[in-house]
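Record Mannitol dehydrogenase, 498 aa.
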Amino acid sequence: MKDHMHKNSPMKLNAANLDAFPETILRPRYDRAALRAGMVHIGVGNFHRGHQAWYLHRLMQQGLAHDWAIIGAGVRATDATMRDKLLAQDCLTTLIELSTNSSGAEIIGSMIDFLPVEDGNAALIAQLAQADIRIVSLTVTEGGYFIHPATKGFDAAHPDIVHDAANPTTPRTAFGAIVAALKLRKEMGLGAFTALSCDNLVSNGDILRQTVVSLAHLSDPALADWIDNTCSFPNSMVDCIVPATGQNELALAKGFGVDDAAPVTHEDFRQWVIEDHFCAGRPDWDKVGAQFTNDVHAFEAMKIRILNGGHQVISVPAQVLGIDTISGCMEHDLLGPLFLKIAHEEIAPHVDAVPDMTPSAYVKLIQRRCANPMIVDTTRRVAFDGSSRHPGFVLPSIRDGLAAGTSIDGLALIEAAWARMCAGTRGDGAVIAPNDPFWADLNVIALRAKDDPAAWLSMTHIYGDLAENARFVAAFKTALRRIWAEGMSAAIQNYLSR
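=>
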């Protein structure tokens, strides 16, 4: 591997040490002490720091957007852990780009503070009500938007939503904090801000609008109308493979001479496509590679169907086969071909081209990105929360295939593989640890489906009317019976031989 590893003992990452790091490490050229906040980001995980925070940092490197610095925030206990790590290093992050034959490190400084994570979210509400905050962005996972599993509308009965509706000044959720802050802004005549979802959801801006406006309506209908009429909720598509941080990533940072408690590794690819609909201004992210467009949906469909759907295609059977990494899947003599066959034959035909990219070319791009052996992205991480990911990433391609009369056998096999995975054991008998917010329920149904495959499809909050489609049901039942009788490898081989 060609790189620039540092021989001496690593130094703690903080503002005081910035100038002392090896010259091979890129670092902020701007005066961080002079930055002013313009954004609050809720949900400061690895993806945000490797994606949105990087775009802003690159703008700042050009002498731009110095009044758009990010203040981090969170509403979950795990956010407090990240806050402690980042505040101890002045909110600096080491980004390590890993391509197939090289690596490089860059320290980014676009975040300048991280709010206390606390019951009632008083600090978050107060910050969001400040006039200089013009964008509030979120990465709270696909399953975090309080979407009713059956209706796909707003889930007003969720206990956290019921709490926030009854206690609007001391909310539990990020959305409750947004509503409370917007109420203060309205009362003070400060105007609205843009709420920007950076999660992998089709129409993520529309869904964020639905959640915020619907929640506001439960306690203050007039406020809800004001939010709906004055706030912006741009749809966006985000893309960069950013693994979780473990001992390997901590060691990589130290190899560059940086003792970073929360470094981020990422692939050598990023994409951010955003509707240009910002009610209170925005940074010029397009100057550093983001794309502003009026048609996010075509980009979004291509990425969610082929990358996110393709991730499920390989990670779910991999969990049963005991293959731990995404790159390992692409090297595997069955899973690599399985991805290509399903992507080319069952997903790409239902995806429109976007400027400069056909669906088949995008499949090849995803194949290359997933095969990068330097990115240690685990199949466990990618297969997590199937109860949110399958309805969003996989089932739409099945519906399109059924409507068009084209093959859905491979995707039916993946749904059967998910049912097999949720039974909680690998093919060799090893235990698969719980890997879904609803794992206990899924596990009971998966074990029942071993003898009665229809039991799995009875989850109408996931499958809806697909459970009544004779062609899909037959393909699913055949696949699940074969997986249990002959094993995952034999079932995949059977599909590949067609």
